[in-house]
Amino acid sequence: MSTATQRDPIGWLALPAVAYLGLVYALPLVFLLARSVTGPEGFTLQLFGQFFADPYSWRVIWNTLRIALLTTLVCLLIGFPVAIAMARAKGLMQVALLVAIILPLSIGVVVKAFAWQIVLRRDGVVSQFLVGTGIWSEPQRLLFTETGLVMGAANVFLPFMILPIYSVVKLIDPRLSEAGATLGASPLYRFRRIFLPLTLPGLVSGIAFVFSMSVSMFVIPSLLIGDRFQMLATLTGRSFLLMRNEALGSTTAVVLLVMAVSIVVASSWLAKRLGGSQ
Amino acid sequence: MTAIERVASALVWAIALFAIVFLLTPLVVTVAVSFGSSAVFTLPPPGWSMRWYNQLPATRGLWPSLATSLQIATLSTLVSLVLGTLCAIALVRGRFAGRDAIATFLVSPLMLPGLVVGIAMLQGFKAVGLREAWPSLLVAHVVITMPYVVRTVLAALSLFDFTLIDAARTLGCSYGKALRKVMVPALAPAFLTSAMFAFLASMDNYPISIFFTDAWTKTLPIQMLQFVEERPDPVIAAISAGLILLAVIALIIGDRLVGLRRLADF
Questions:
Q1: Chain A residue with minimum CA distance to B113
Q2: Torsion sign over Cα B106, B110, B113, B117
Q3: How many CB atoms lie within 10 A of CB A237?
Q4: Which residue range forms the structural domain that includes residue B94?
Q5: I need a labelling partner for A92 at 20 to 30 A (CA). Which of A19, A66, A173, B90 fits?
Q6: How many domains, in total, are found in chain B?
């Protein structure tokens, strides 16, 4: 059997996987989108009109964006230095960093969110630590607060900030900075003009990962802040699982989907413009 | 080194140490609570005991959900390995248009909100009359596991030197034997790590599974969240500690196979 003479039969090997995901995953998503803009008389944006006319919806959207932005910011402030440390670390420190980042990645979100329920209690380790160091005068409960939610979410998503930044930082040639120093550039100038531009693609993809995961998180807010504080994903879940309100659930699901897709598209466009490798 | 650089460097290491503690805190706390004698999560525990582990065998709903999760994770990983590897071969060896688009499409379930994908599938499955929980879970979980296989096997295959197969055939191997003796061993680490991550992703999935469970068929994360809501006690910590142990074993295997640094490649 000669494969060279035929016109690329090996391409057909892609068919089963593509057909499977097309039928089981892409087609239902298209139907979800189509149904959300279809009424009894054909095309309509009525469901979205209703949704966006309700002030409560705007509060939910604002909750979602605010928590996602704060979570992303916390992850960036911790993740950027950690990625730099990881690229420089040797020996035990490197192993410790790698284990601390990779191990939580293979543990389910239910396990971690449950652990944070314990950590954020009034007698939990965070409260004990802050009272012990004198920052707080008395123990406080962080569970069911926005601060607690951001802490838990940042903890779960931090590896997704660190790893993309690390993947570009480790490729930066240290001689570039030395060359800058030889030419009289100050450390701050070298960071801003040499280091930062080179890490930008990693920063963009890390921010996009964490932001889109924070926008669509469901288990973490369910366990760490409860029903009184709704985000788009928790409202979507509740509409389907508890309230049996499929119209509302489909609408919020589509809003969430559009947000997530825009983040992915915008970040990959930005990464390409910045000349990133991924 | 100037003063600014020294301060910056000290800050970087301090934050790195903080991050190690921060990232490992939930795991350490869970394990500590699971071995504690206190029922109200006091830390440090007043005494150590195995009482929560002793309750595991009699915990209602735990073992059936674990069995369901293991079955679904194993089968969906196997299906994804076959379909994903075939597709990766096509993408690396084929010369047709849209290969990048196909790769992005197959990895995209990772990037979309799980809940939305779950809702779409729920409605899709209903439309074609698929209502039973177990087959629905299996069909849905192949979508969850596929991205891990495609991503890792694709990366490994694009580094594989296909002329080695021609070399083996020149030396008298049949085509099948050449694949078995040359390509499969070279790709074995990729198969194992992708299978491991796919398996764990399926075992841990909540937002998609929640739409395909009923009173009798639940996956472990669904059952665990139900425990958390119904009766939060350290038995859940004991189950969690078991899952953490599983992750530690997976990490050690991953380290032996490809090394920790390669696991961090993103």
A1: A216
A2: positive
A3: 26
A4: 62-217
A5: A173
A6: 1
How many helices and strands, by DSSP H and E, does chain A display? 14, 2
List A43's β-bridge partners, or say none: A38
Counted across chains A and B, CB pairs separated by less than 8 A come out at 273
Asked if B30 and A128 come within 8 Å (Cβ–Cβ), the reply is: no
All residues of chain B having their beta carbon less than 8 Å from the beta carbon of residue A14 are: 86-87, 90-91, 94, 102
Do residue A236 and residue B83 have CB atoms under 8 angstroms apart? no
- Per the CB < 8 Å rule, is A115 touching B113? no
Averages of pLDDT over runs of 10 residues in chain A (278 residues) are 56 93 96 88 87 94 96 98 94 93 92 94 89 89 94 97 93 86 86 88 92 94 93 94 87 93 88 65
B151: buried, middle or exposed (CB in 10 Å: 19+, 13-18, 0-12)?
buried
| Nearest Cβ partner for B15 among A8, A78, A264 | A78
Q: What is the CA radius of gyration of chain B?
A: 23
In a domain, residue B97? The reply is yes
- Please tell me the distance from the alpha carbon of residue A90 to that of residue A81, in angstroms, as a whole number: 16
Distance in Å, alpha carbon of A170 to nearest chain B alpha carbon: 11
B22/A241 CB distance under 8 A: no
Q: Is B36 helix (H, G, I), strand (E, B) or coil?
A: strand
Q: Which residues contact A178 (CB under 8 A, 6 or more apart)?
A: none
Examine residue B116 and state whether it is found in any structural domain, yes or no. yes
CA separation for the pair A158, A153 (Å, rounded): 8
Per-residue pLDDT, A275: 64
The gap from C-alpha A99 to its chain's centroid, in whole angstroms, comes to 21
ipTM for this model: 0.91
CATH number for the domain including B195? 1.10.3720.10
In Å, how far are A84, B55, B57, B207 from B64, measured between CA atoms? 45, 16, 11, 20
Q: Report residues of chain B scoring pLDDT below 70.
A: 1, 266
Given an 8 Å threshold on Cβ–Cβ distance, is B33 in contact with A118? yes
Tell me if A240 and B203 make a contact (CB, 8 A cut-off). no
**Which among A17, A89, A121 has the least Cβ separation from residue B83?**
A17
Q: Which CATH topology does A56-273 take?
A: MetI-like fold (1.10.3720)
Give the separation between CA B14 and CA A187, rounded to whole angstroms.
19
How do the domains of chain A map onto residue ranges? 11-44, 56-273
* B252 within a domain of the structure (yes/no): no
Q: Are B199 and B247 in contact (CB under 8 A)?
A: no
Q: Is residue B6 part of a domain?
A: no
